[in-house]
Amino acid sequence: MYINATLINLYNVCQRELWLHANGIRFEHTSDLVLEGKLIHEDSYPQRSEKYEEIELDGIKVDYYDAKSKVIHEIKKSNKVEKAHEWQVKYYLYVFEQNGIEGVTGLLEYPVLRKTHPVILSDLDREKIEAMKKDIEKIVSDENCPPLIQKSLCRNCSYFEFCYSKEVEE
Question: Which of 42, 130, 136, 139 is the one with CA 20 to 30 A from 15?
Fold first, then answer.
């Protein structure tokens, strides 16, 4: 199975959404919040496209990589799921490392909040990523979708209506 950074992120947010996404059931295109995040990404640092490289490597797509300073920049709208964002960037660092690009660090940027958060990859993180990959493969290959979790962040999820709709049983 092909693991990408989105799956790592979703694994750390909601395993139900992970399963749905990986199995081709997607609603991101219907979400105003997802669109807002994309606009923030595009409009926050317009000069970056000229200065930094876009990198696609082994299932990841890093929009802003400063090759000179060896820094991956990841822009997010909100820090509500900051740990998931952090693991996404750690996965980027992991993939770079697996491809012989050493000494790379990450920077999570929240332009609306005017916050940044540095990200590094430790030996323990590498072990956790290996475990996550195995767990993701297990979750995605299961023929049953994981059960609904009820979290406050569900209200803003693009899968909300899907997960919370109830079918009438006859």
Answer: 42
Q: Which CATH number fits domain 5-164: 3.90.1150.180, 3.90.1150.10, 3.40.30.10, 3.90.320.10?
A: 3.90.320.10
Residue spans per domain, the chain:
5-164
Q: What is the pTM of this model?
A: 0.85
Alpha helices (runs of H) in 12-143, residue ranges in sequence order: 15-22, 32-44, 48-51, 82-98, 123-141
Tokens of 88: 């996404």
Q: Give the pLDDT confidence of 68-79 residue by residue, as tens digits.
A: 999 999 989 889
CA 14, CA 153: separation in Å to the nearest integer? Answer: 10
Q: Could you tell me the two tokens for 85? A: 């964002």
How far apart CA 60 and CA 72 sit, in angstroms, is 12
pLDDT tens track for 104-114: 999 999 988 99
The 10s digit of each residue's pLDDT in 120-144 is 999 999 999 999 999 999 999 999 9
Range 98-106, long-range pairs (CB < 8 A, 24+ positions) = 98/58, 99/57, 99/58, 101/70, 103/70, 104/70, 104/71, 104/72, 105/70, 105/71, 105/72, 106/71, 106/72, 106/73, 106/74
